[in-house]
Amino acid sequence: MTGRVAASAPVAAPGLHARHRAVLPAWLSLYYAEPIELTHGEGRYVWDAEGRRYLDFFGGILTTMTAHALPEVTKAVAEQAGRILHTSTLYLDRHMVELAERVAALSGIPDARVFFTTSGTEANDAALLLATTYRRSNQILAMRNSYHGRSFSTVGITGNSAWSPTSLSPLQALYVHGAVRSQGPYAHLSDAAFTAACVRDLEDMLGQAHGTVAALIAEPVQGVGGFTAAPDGLYAAFREVLDRHGILWISDEVQTGWGRTGDHFWGWQAHAENGPPDLLTFAKGIGNGMSVGGVVARAEVMDCLEANSISTFGGSPVTMAAGLANLTYLLEHDLQGNARRVGGLLIERLRAVAAGLPVPVVREVRGRGLMIGVELTSSEAAGQALERAREEGLLIGKGGRDGTVLRIAPPLTLTVAEAEEGAAALERALRRVRQDAGTGGRS
Length: 443
Description:
single chain; alpha/beta; 13 helices; 38% helix
């Protein structure tokens, strides 16, 4: 016997999905029964590791706001990376100052100050810190069906149980009606009566609160909640009540900012009758995929912190260069106007699709600009539609309180031809959903 060990058959290396499950949290969601790896993109299209091309109607959760591989942004990133990658806020940075100047001017908030973060979660977290410190209160008004991030404080004021894994929180959240127009106890009312009822609900809620309330935080259009929105002017009506009590208004513009809704540059501008918010948070689209977020606030609110603070990665030279290049491109090419024009056509096309289906599977098509929600009759139907759309070469998102809403938010450079291509793909997918539903979900 020579002592040699017989060679065993080669074992195949595990696939990327199996490796993902082996080392990453079980609660880290992946789309699709067979998750895909996206390897590159250009314009409004992306490709997976198998070489399949998709029309991207979700933009990495509304983050690739302008276009994939936009030359102006990639050039700015490459040039800055070639000079210096990182410094921190302990040193002056020209790009950070220039971007802050532009964001402050665009925000509509007088005497504004800007603090940069790395995400929308961190931006909302900073806004909550500022508001509670300024008002010396841990009580926060939030909207039902809301979502504001995944940190301990933002989860604590999220009004959507599907995204709130714990009831523990450093804050006391009081939830107000108004952000979901088509559901709830006031859905049958006219817009004016709906707004009046929600204002009465807010006043009643404040009567139940103990002591001083710090702020109301609200998304002008709820993102994770399924692209639901209050009637125009509701937050202006709320503002009258808030001002009587000295309560701050935080507008969460992480998904609605930068002209995505078409009609306005910021979502709060649909509720502008009584002036701008006291604080405004942003993220996602401004970096076009780079990690940029921030909060804008009146100077007296922003400067209320008495302890020292810095940001190690917020406002980095590379991400600020990307944000400046992206914002410049967006403004020079009037992408807000494009969102209004192309988004309006796309919404009407999708409503026609819904009306033409042989069996009604769509409950409602809603939205503004290139922020469109297609609510289906069940979460099962929405899950099937997500899968079938991918098979048709279209990437979309999913959300809503019960997971019934398809979320459509393409890059703001979307063309009319691409809008028609995406609508046709979604129509084919929805027709297949009805067939699948009739066979117990089998394709």
